[in-house]
Amino acid sequence: MLKKLRLRQKFTILLLVVLVLGMTLSGLTLSTVLKQNAKEQIASQALTLMDTISSVRDYTVLYITPELQDKLKTKFLPQTVAAFSATTVFEILRKKPEYHSLFYKEAALNPTNLRDKADSFETEIIERFLQKKELKNLSGFRSFPGNEVFYIARPLVVSQPSCLQCHSSPEVAPKTMIEQYGKDNGFGWHLNDIVAAQIVYVPASTIIQKAHQSSALIVGLVSLVFIIAISVINLFLNNQIIRPLKKITRVAEEVSTGHLDVEFEQLSEDEIGHLAKAFKRMKFSLEMAIKKLKNSVDKKPVIELECRSF
Hints:
This protein is of the alpha+beta class. Helices cover 57% and strands 11% of the residues. The protein contains seven helices and four strands, in the order H-H-E-H-E-E-H-H-E-H-H. The chain starts with 6 loop residues before the first helix and ends in a 12-residue tail after the last helix. 17% of the residues are buried.
């Protein structure tokens, strides 16, 4: 099949094959790289959110709880709990479209509010923080029924002595808190203990979507570059190779039919030009050979045959 195709068609097919293979390989590689970049970008945003939430926690412990300490004797106020402030602020933040898909949890091994109890997956994360105190954060993917999410987690440390007023022992904790949550959970904490993990969950589809958007844009730009390159190569091929070859072929056909008045024109010093030069020398050699043959025929003696009779 290829034997029947013209040179330009063969080059075009070759370039298209290179384009398809290049796009396939680069697409796979690009998808992996962009997915990793999307993960890092979202992880960076999540860590920034955690820093903000941690600031809210510190503000609650340092400024809100002391002001409401006296009221805790008669009524438990969740506004004095750092975890309540953190989760409430995050829920307000989630009302914005850019944060709507995020979910925040302070997963604890022994929380006061069982709503914050770590599940088996989150317990493993906290245990890893306990085993390796140098770990600053963990990230990865987690599967839920019918959904996959990306998570970024950071250890939550008891950094303020005032936190122990509610979490050291039931005897020290406000009675109104004991009345609401009981005395079986959320106690036994110590200063500088890792008691929980701040976790931000992001749907994996968000990462994949970001990667696909970037990938589609880059693949589109690369494809456009390839198409322009193919067009330029075809134009160059036509002007620098196809046309000179056609001209040499046409002149060679005329020479083969005896029209020796035509000339092989050398337009360049490249291989095509050298080919034209070689054909020019061949034509000259052919003319010399024809001249020699003609002169040889003209000088040949005429032999007269005499008839003798017997």
